Amino acid sequence: MDQETARGWLATAVEEARAGLAEGGMPIGAALYGADGTLLGRGRNRRVQDADPATHAETAAFRAAGRQRSYRGTTMVTTLSPCWYCSGLVRQFGISRVVIGEAVTFHGGHDWLAEHGVEIVLLDDAECESVLRGFVQQHPELWGEDVGQTPA
User: Fold this and answer.
1) How far is CA 87 from CA 1, 48, 138, 152, in A?
2) What do you get for the CA distance between the two ends of the chain, in Å?
3) Are 68 and 43 in contact, with CB atoms under 8 Å apart?
């Protein structure tokens, strides 16, 4: 995948992340693109807004895409390395590629995905990292809850 296309698709996920932050939620966004480059669905982490722990950005984009006969050739674009939950979604449905804005703030399951044949495009996007780092500093409890690292 060429960098220009990857960054263009990442812009959609970044818009979703910004919207999530403006709503008082986590600044993580995602989009699912078809093999032909068509935007199938987009979404943002809505755990806070909907009080729903299952609504991560990737699951929101996946659900917005609706039922597809096959996910072969599709690309999940996300502002942050996908957690294990979202990595499982990618594997379960055979999504072919994951474009990741950044993996410094959180290094999720993308190595595991790569080991199982999923193409990983890591962009190391400065804006994605900056927005999330700022959020983590301002809301450490909420961040810990989102990544499953809250104290007992």
Assistant:
1) 20, 21, 26, 25
2) 42
3) no
Q: What's the average model confidence in pLDDT over 22-40?
A: 97
**Per-residue pLDDT tens digits for 90-118:** 999 999 999 999 999 999 999 999 999 99
At residue 146 the predicted structure's pLDDT band, cuts being 50, 70 and 90, is confident
**Segment 118-142 mean pLDDT:** 95
Instruction: Please identify every residue annotated as catalytic.
Output: 58
In DSSP notation, the chain reads --HHHHHHHHHHHHHHHHHHHHTTS---EEEEE-TTS-EEEEEE--HHHHT-TT--HHHHHHHHH---S--TT-EEEEEE---HHHHHHHHHHT--EEEEEE-SS---SHHHHHHTT-EEEE---HHHHHHHHHHHHH-HHHHHHHTT----
d(CA 9, CA 16): 12
Report the C-alpha gap between 25 and 45 in whole angstroms: 7
